[in-house]
Amino acid sequence: MIMLTGVLGAISGVWLAGLIMLGLGLVFAIVLLVASEKLKVPVDPRITQVYEVLPHLDCGACGYPGCSGYAKAVIANPELLGQCAPGGADAASRIAAILNLRISASGPAKRPIVHCRAHTADRTYFAQYQGIPSCTAANALANAQACKFGCLGFGDCVRACKFDALHVIDGLSTVDYTKCTGCGACSKACPRNLIEMVPFSYENMMTVACRSRENGKSTRAFCQVGCIGCGLCAKQSEAFTVADNLARMDYAKYAPCGENEAAMNKCPTGVIVCRGKTAPPPREPKAKSAEAAKG
Amino acid sequence: MATDSHGRTTFSRGVHPPESKHLTEDRPIEPGPGVAELSILLSQHIGAPCQAAVKKGDLVQAGQKIGECQAFVCAPVHAPVAGKVKELALRPHPVLGRCQAIAIEPQEPASPTLPSFSLPADFDPTRHTPQEICEAVRDAGLVGMGGAGFPTSVKIQPDAKPPKHTLLVNGCECEPYITCDYRLMLEWTDQVLAGIRLAQRACGASKVFIGVEDNKPKAIDAVGAAIKRAGSGSDIRVVSLQTKYPQGGERQLINAVLGQTVPTGGIPPMIGVVVINVATAAAIADAVLYHRPLTHRVVTVTGEAIAKAGNYYVPIGTPVEALIEFCGGVTEKSAKVVMGGPMMGLAIADLNTPITKTSGAVTVLTRRQIGQAKFERRQTACIRCGRCLEVCPENLSPTRIAHAVRSNLLDVAQSYFISACIECGCCSYVCPANIELTGYIKTGKIFLARQRKKMPA
After folding, report:
1. Residue B443 is nearest to which of A137, A213, A214, comparing CB atoms?
2. Strands (E), A101-251
3. pLDDT class for B456, splitting at 50, 70, 90?
4. Alpha-carbon gap, residue B280 to B286, rounded angstroms
5. Where does residue B252 rank: exposed (0-12), middle (13-18), buried (19+ CB within 10 A)?
């Protein structure tokens, strides 16, 4: 006892405090160590494995809060396999390997196509829109621009894109296919439902870049590059159908063949365009190029 | 009844913009222009759009039903004049932008003649059964003519639950500039009153109040005198209300006249009240007593940029351009055309937009007025002055909702009751920072609707 007092007395106040803290720390560490072993919650190791495979972009395209949410969901319900758009077929096959599943051949990856090709100069405006700079707000007004179907160019889709793959260029929302992951957020953001997620069977896809169901006369009055529903394309290639004053492309029937090229070249307004990583720029409408040749 | 500190019947909050009714209030209802083409929009009401019942090239008679649908909440459309169906195509719509329409080429593009309405000497609403009235109203394609366009037959249908105890007739016309309802109350008083009594008979309400703002003393007197003429048995009262915007909003009107509050997210029938506009009442009388469908309406063409402002009786489907042309044309001064009044009206850019059943006015504003209004001046940061809270008739916090929408925080906007907003525009009107508060709230509502549709549960 005398010795202990002596030892304590020999240690100065600072050292004493340090030793007590050290002792306390040791005791708590032992308690935590025991608790972590005793109260362990078993975690499915596959969740971590699947999470590692996913692209860690947390884009929400799958409908779950982030990649970890999707990892949990896909293990619980393997039918969700392939919902990860940015990961694509690669991620799907690796998840399948982890979960010991066999996947059927997946279709081509989907990429967005904007069904409008009109830039500001091509469009008709009845008046100047000065309201809130958002497509949704402008779309709620009757005539922010004459065409009720075309791109408004206020960039609701640009704000929705997490990958910097969309830009409004000269009043038209334009996809940068080198950056696009196909998550589909833009397609959900567009108040006019102009952005369609299309399976890209080829590097470039041909499409009718218009959604106007106006008759030919009105479409011409509102836009220089709108589809007037003339039906010339449908005569050239069976991939095109015309209904409701509007031509549509059946992507399942599309192939980069001469017939489709001919349809694209015959189109009087140049509304049939190619979209994709290496797509050529769209052709000028016939009336415009004739004018240019004259002038 | 709810009153303010001076004893005037009113709701709490709201604003009082310059009334500007002097331009047209002394102009009697005159026939409008004759036009070469009428576009009858197939969606002029809340509910399912109509299906065209005629084809291109068909000859139609005046008053013939040319579009209808089987849905319960729907109102058919009729041809205002005899003529030929020119085409079925998309036409400009003041709300939807473009909408399927029937274009009619009148046989003779003559000015419409003012209808003659004489109350039958033996007029007695009890001679019509409620079902009869309701059916006649539905056949005539009646919708709320004050602006919302809810099918009237659904509103006044008998035997609805809960039973209706009160019929409120909206003669407030609180929007600046507009005077079409005022002129109706002055000139077609008997017809309005007959319509009110028929509506009362249909919905079975025991009490009837006609709410009129106190800046229209002549209308209050005229309607009061007509009630007296109608004699005993009429339990109809005219209520003079404080001149304040939005006195004519149905939730505000109910609060002012009855002291009751319609539950948030609810509609007046839930508390046993039916609200109809005076123009609708006049149309009810026409529909039930003379079986005339709703094919014409009174439109106030007004604004400082209009040379010959006035109240005109025009066929539905008349393009706004023809109306403006008739009133002196688009002048140097004109800068913005609004369908309706400046507070809640919809700016239109395509002047081919036709008059619909719900358009009570065409207001042409000048460049100077738009400069005074918010939207051409720059928007600045919110200074937290709270003026929008002081004027919001629904006791909301517009600035918080608008900022939540701007930051894409829709759940926050919902926690501030974004859907309770009636979009009256008072907050935008008073905002010293020129923030488009109502615009943001409106946009937020669309975002929410889209979200609900895209993400089930």
Report:
1. A137
2. 110-114, 166-169, 172-175, 195-199, 204-208, 240-243, 246-249
3. very low
4. 10
5. buried
Residue A96, burial from CB neighbour count under 10 angstroms (0-12, 13-18, 19+): middle
What is the structure's pLDDT at B457? 37
Q: How do the residues of chain B divide into helix, strand and coil, expressed in percent and rounded to 5?
A: 30, 20, 45
Taking contacts as CB-CB distances below 8 angstroms, the residues of chain A near B440 are 132, 137
Report pLDDT digits (tens) over B214-225: 999 999 999 999
In this prediction, residue B372 carries a pLDDT of 66
Q: Which two tokens stand for residue A14?
A: 């600072």
Q: For an interface test with A, which of B421, B443, B445 has the most A Cβ atoms less than 10 Å from its Cβ? A: B443
Q: Using CB atoms within 10 Å of the CB of residue A189, give its burial: 0 to 12 exposed, 13 to 18 middle, 19+ buried.
A: buried
Global confidence as pTM:
0.85
Q: Which amino acid is at B91?
A: R
Domains and CATH numbers, chain A: 46-98 (1.10.15), 110-286 (3.30.70.20)
Beta-strand relationship, B361-366 and B296-302: parallel
| Distance from C-alpha of B120 to C-alpha of B126, rounded to nearest angstrom | 14
Closest CA to A210 of A172, A266, A262, A263: A172
pLDDT attached to residue B369: 81
Beta carbons of B276 and B199 less than 8 angstroms apart: yes
Helix (H) or strand (E) holding B413: helix B410-415
CATH 3.40.50.11540 range(s) for chain B read: 21-26+129-290
Cβ atoms B256, B9 nearer than 8 A: yes
Contacts B439 to A, Cβ<8 Å: 131-132, 137
A141 lies within 8 A of chain B by CB: yes
- Identify the closest residue of chain A to B94 by CA–CA distance: A142
- DSSP state, residue A202: S
pLDDT in tens, B44-65: 888 888 888 898 989 999 889 9
H-type helices in A11-155, by residue range?
13-38, 45-53, 66-76, 88-98, 135-140
Give ipTM to 2 decimals: 0.82
B457 contacts chain A (CB < 8 A): no
Q: Which site among A64, A124, A136 would you substitute to test the B interface, given the most B Cβ atoms closer than 10 Å to its Cβ?
A: A136
Token digits of residue B301: 């063409």
Which chain A residues are within 8 Å of B446, Cβ to Cβ?
Answer: 136-137, 139-140, 191
| Chain B positions in Cβ-Cβ contact with residue A131 (cut-off 8 Å) | 375, 436, 439
CATH architecture for the domain at B21-26+129-290: 3-Layer(aba) Sandwich (3.40)
Residue ranges, chain A, pLDDT below 70: 1-11, 105-106, 287-295
